[in-house]
Design a protein that fits this description.
Elements (H helix, E strand, L loop, with lengths): L3 E9 L3 H6 L8 E9 L5 H7 L5 E4 L3 H13 L5 E4 L10 H4 L4 E3 L5 H33 L4 E6 L4 E4 L1 H7 L3 H4 L4 H4 L4 H5 L5 H11 L3 E8 L5 E12 L5 E10 L7 H9 L5 E5 L4 E4 L1 H7 L3 H4 L4 H8 L11 E7 L5 E12 L5 E10 L1 H46 L1 H24 L8 H10 L12 H4 L7 H8 L1 H12 L6 H13 L20 H16 L10 H10 L7 H9 L1 H9 L1
Helix pairs in contact: 15-16, 16-17, 16-22, 16-24, 16-25, 17-21, 20-21, 21-22, 22-23
């Protein structure tokens, strides 16, 4: 906390002593620097000038020369003077000489002896500084507290008091120091003899039992009013465990009953019915709101035991803990039934001892009625929403069936393709979901929407002319461009049909699958040339299922590929046309694909 550099002045015939003392290391939080003045009989002025900034002055000069410097040494502010005795004959004898010096280093002054004396001197100085710091810390601590704090010796004389103590008794610390109980509290023997003051007796008890005790004590303040104190008193021991005094901490905790008038004003300003009890559970204050609620007067409630009253008036016995609320029905004298919310909070003094209980009785009847109305409305609203949702989903399902029938009626090949790809999408999505590769598929709603939307991926073919849609051979370049439009057309159709159906999540998946199932992982697909994860996951799954069915199905312009060859083609395109992770799941799902192909 502090650091002190000691200025050490050596007055000696030579510089040898400084060299010897430099070998002693400084103590913790201390440093030291040396100044050596070579002693000369006529060097008095130089010596006195050097003394001004010195913390330690070591005089290694003949005794006869000391006498000349005594007047100056006695007047200086520096108390640490050391005299070095070089021989037994060179001795200070007079009291005037001895009382000036902090230490006398006796001959013979060998190097070891000098270093020993110097180290001991440094320890003494450090102890002084540490003691001063401890006193400062103690004074700062006790003076910063609002509580009264004091230290007494075994006879009852005050050794130390804090500012709060002085302020209360109207005396300074100097006036309190060394004085007893009667003087400080302006008491005479007759007053003490009345038995109203127990301060001294309580301290005798503490010294007898040798442990901290708690007392309630009454004392008279400067204005003559009696004050109630809660005091904690502890014994002070010496190094032999003998009690040599006491230490006390006190706070004015005048009885809660004395605050009745102020508490009534506060309680009456609270619109909520409330009451206050003391530490024994006796009602000491009630507000007007509670009187109106219960139809009783203040004088009929104050003085009653709270637990007895609440059992008789409110018909409940439970003791509530802090933060707990109890709701119960209470019937008033007029026959109305109220719903009360009751809470009981303990009241603490400065020592965290319970000195009472604050009880609130809120009328929540109207609030609960509103809550019940809202709950009923919410339940009816949820019921209506669920019914409407079920109706919309039913309409969507019928619409999907109608679309599938419409596609089948235009092209039997396309219709079979829709059925097959729907099965393959379901199988691939299941495998991906089981591996938890894509977090999207962990969402049950998204997963179901992917499976359901597969039937819609070729919806745009409805808008393709029959002459192109049903062409028996390969498309010409211009015809192929028209055929490619079915992806974008599918999005437009779904925009018109599903956008306003109240299921935006399903609409989004169905549209993404219809528009983007011909996009390729490397960006060479259509209609927008998306690549990588720019392509929606549902469309990446659909792309694999779509190509698989195209490869293993008969078309007017080709024969069906064997399943092995179809798998080889798709595996080769992993990372180019398809998402490699989807292809990996597709490979793992081959047994299920084979079963689906046979049915």
């Amino acid at each position: 906390m502090y650091f002190k550099e000691l200025n050490i002045l050596i007055c000696s015939p030579d510089g040898k002593m400084e060299e010897q003392l430099r070998q002693v290391k400084p103590l913790e939080r201390f440093g030291h620097k040396f100044t050596t003045i070579i002693y000369k009989p006529a060097g008095q002025m130089e010596f006195e000038a050097a003394c001004v900034d010195a913390d330690v002055i070591i005089l290694d000069v003949p005794t006869a020369e000391i006498q000349e410097s005594l007047p100056y040494l006695s007047a200086t502010l520096h108390p640490r003077f050391v005299y070095c005795q070089r021989s037994e004959a060179d001795t200070l004898t007079s009291p005037e000489q001895l009382e000036v010096f902090t230490a006398v280093w006796a001959a013979p002054l060998t190097t070891e002896r000098l270093q020993f004396y110097f180290a001991r001197l440094l320890r003494d100085i450090k102890n002084e500084y540490d003691l001063r710091l401890s006193r400062t810390c103690l004074d700062t601590t006790i003076d910063s507290l609002p509580d009264l704090i004091w230290f007494k010796d075994a006879r009852g004389a005050h050794l130390k008091v804090n500012n709060s103590f002085c302020q209360l008794v109207g005396k300074t610390k100097e006036q309190c120091q060394g004085r007893g109980h009667y003087y400080i509290w302006n008491m005479d023997a007759e007053e003490y003899g009345k038995g109203e003051y127990v301060c001294l007796e309580s301290e005798e008890t503490v010294m007898k039992v040798k442990k901290t005790c708690v007392f309630d004590e009454k004392l008279k303040g400067l204005n003559g009013h009696m004050l109630q104190f809660r005091t904690y008193k502890s014994p002070i021991f010496d190094e032999d465990k003998k009690v040599i005094g006491t230490m006390g901490v006190a706070r004015d905790v005048s009885d809660l009953h004395k605050l009745s008038q102020e508490l009534n004003l506060i309680l009456d300003s609270i619109p909520t019915p409330a009451l206050l009890t003391d530490a024994e559970g006796v009602i000491i204050n009630v507000n007007k709101s509670l009187q109106n609620l219960t139809g009783t007067k203040e004088q009929d409630l104050v003085g009653k035991v709270y637990d007895v009253w609440k059992r008789q008036a409110l018909h409940f016995n439970k003791k509530l803990v802090s933060g707990e609320h109890l709701q119960l029905a209470h019937q008033t004298e007029t026959g109305n039934t109220l719903q009360l919310d009751i809470s009981e909070e303990p009241v603490y003094d400065v020592f965290h001892d319970i000195i009472g209980c604050f009880c609130l009785f809120r009328d929540v009847t109207e609030h609960l009625n509103h809550v019940n109305l809202l709950l009923n409305y919410q339940k009816q609203l949820e019921k209506d929403v669920n019914a409407k949702t079920a109706e919309i989903q039913k309409m969507q399902q019928q619409l999907l069936i109608s679309f599938a029938d419409l596609i089948n009626s235009r092209d039997n090949i396309t219709g079979d393709h829709i059925k097959n790809t729907s099965k393959y999408v379901h199988i691939i999505a299941d495998k991906l979901r089981s591996q938890h590769i894509f977090k999207e598929l962990d969402d049950e709603t998204f997963y179901q929407n992917v499976v359901r939307s597969a039937t819609m991926h070729d919806i745009g073919k409805i808008a393709i002319p029959d002459v192109i849609l049903n062409k028996p051979g390969r498309f010409e370049p211009a015809e192929y461009e028209i055929m490619k439009r079915h992806a974008a057309l599918g999005g437009e159709i779904l925009d018109q049909v599903l956008a306003g159906m109240g299921n935006p999540a399903y609409y989004k998946v169905a549209r993404n699958m219809a528009v983007y199932h011909h996009e390729k992982w490397d960006g060479t697909g259509y209609p927008e040339g998306k690549k990588g994860e720019e392509i929606p996951l549902c469309a990446r799954i659909m792309a694999v299922a779509d190509v698989l069915d195209a490869l293993i199905s008969v078309r007017p312009y080709k024969k069906a590929f064997p399943l092995d060859e179809a798998y080889a083609i798709i595996d080769k395109e992993a990372g180019h046309q398809f998402d490699a992770r989807v292809v990996q799941a597709f490979d793992l799902a081959r047994p299920d694909i084979e079963k689906a192909q046979k049915h």
